[in-house]
Amino acid sequence: MSQIANVYCVPEEHLDEYTHLASCSPAIISEFIRGYLTSITKKGINEEKGREIIFDALYQTADLLKEFGFRVIDDVCTKGGISRVGVNFVSENFPIERLSDELLGRMKSVKLEWSGKYELNNQNILDIINENGTPLYVYEENEIKRNFELIIDSIPYENKQVHYAVMCNSNSEVLRKILQLGGFVQINSIHELDLVKKVGFSNGDISFTSTGLDSESLERLVQEGVQVNLDSVEEVEKYCKLNAGGNFGIRIKMKEDIELPEGYTNSPKDSDVGIPQDYFSRVKQIAQDYGCRINEIHGYLASNILDSEPLIHSSNYLMECAKQFPDLEYVNFGSGFGVPGRKTESKFDFAGIGEYYSRLTKELSDHLGRDVKLKIEPGRSVVATAGTLYAKVTNVKQLTGKKQISINAGFGEFPRPRIYGAYHEIEAVGKTGETETYDIRGNTVLQSDFLGKERKLPQVQEGDILAIRNTGAYGIVMASGFPGKELPSEVMVYSDGTFKRILDWAESESLARSSRYE
Ligand SMILES: Cc1ncc(COP(=O)(O)O)c(C=O)c1O
Questions:
Q1: How confident is the model over 122-148, as pLDDT tens digits?
Q2: Mean of pLDDT over the chain
Q3: Which of 335, 353, 380, 470 to mutate to test the pocket of ligand 1 (most atoms within 8 A of CB)?
Q4: How far apart are CA 431 and CA 467, in angstroms?
Q5: 236 CA to centre of ligand 1 in angstroms
Q6: Comparing 63-67, 137-141, 197-201, which segment has the lowest mean pLDDT?
Q7: Of ligand 1's atoms, which has the minimum distance to the CA of residue 382?
Q8: Is the peptide bond before 326 cis (omega within 30 degrees of 0)?
Q9: How far is it, in rounded angstroms, from Cα 454 to Cα 437?
């Protein structure tokens, strides 16, 4: 043992800290050296020579550190010199001093009651809350995996790509999981492009679908070679000018007469998103003028659809449009796959829709005489059920015939109930016994900051924890902290029962959204 490292006696309570110093540091230091070297070799120097020089410096630094400690930093940096610029750059841009929190957070055990299969139970969740406070979003890696696999396995067609819709939950840990599962991503901003690339997705894994793109964004997408679905004739014109001879996709405007049950958001009747069929000839003409190929057709009907019928209609319409584009490589059915708010509602029929989309894609491939790739872009159905927002009861108020619970999360932490009237199950963690009827609201000055009304819950009191279910999608990404509050933290619970806080807004120096992305 002592031939490869020294043996040390360390106090048991700090075993984790010492372990990561000993076992993770070679990789972390190497990653730093690798990045540093890459930044230099980009300037065209000989990589082999650069490597030799930096390795020499590494050996010498180790000796100097042993002998003189960290005063080496000041000794090497002359006043106003370039080394100081480098040291300042590193300390200002990389939160190195938070590294141990990252590593230790990941190593901490949730103390599972192991039953052969990991489940998050009330005791586990209270441990997590004790450590991280409330309001707190908790995501379960297992559930993301289960959902993702259910979706991908429901499509029998071989040549398929599941592009997770990043806007639903753009936390880097969620994205890393999607990457691990072999997923692709659908993004809708340049900011998301930078984010997914940072997480490790390559340009070929990305599909960009948005609206109102300016030339600068289009230029960046062209530079990166990212597949893009354009929303208007004007965008097509700008794109073709920038990328003559290139490929692009179009998002079609959905047929307006597809019936959606009342209450659905984003009905095609109220939407001008996408290119209407009457404009196809114009789009084709522009593409032809610039030697471009229209290689993808994309259709998105509406959000959170529980009954497959409207999606069958929209996919039929997509096919009718697709047959007008002979160069197609991809047919993109978008998403809209619903997640029931109530436990009593039936789940979305993925098997049925997967079969149907497969059949349509096969027919299109036969029609075109080559294999077209099937794409979908699920967001909500991948992450909604994986997330729960935990909030603390701050007061219980007696009203006529019912009681009102205030909690430390509301519109600013989870706006869906107030914006869309969305129903989310609410439970009192660890509480049983006789129930009472409660309205549940955020403890803010807003008059109608309700998360749920007339809910039956076991009797609760100040300090109890409420769980707002199915909040993994369109949760933290829509949170604003309004009025005047900090945003909730987020924790990922991994399949092995460990957990990690993936952001603490309260500790982050700035509330800029980008700081969520590590
Ligand atoms: C183009 C596009 N793709 C995917 C999604 C994700 O949809 P969902 O959350 O319904 O799965 C959306 C949501 O608005 C979208 O506009």
A1: 778 998 999 999 999 999 999 999 999
A2: 89
A3: 335
A4: 11
A5: 21
A6: 63-67
A7: 11
A8: no
A9: 6
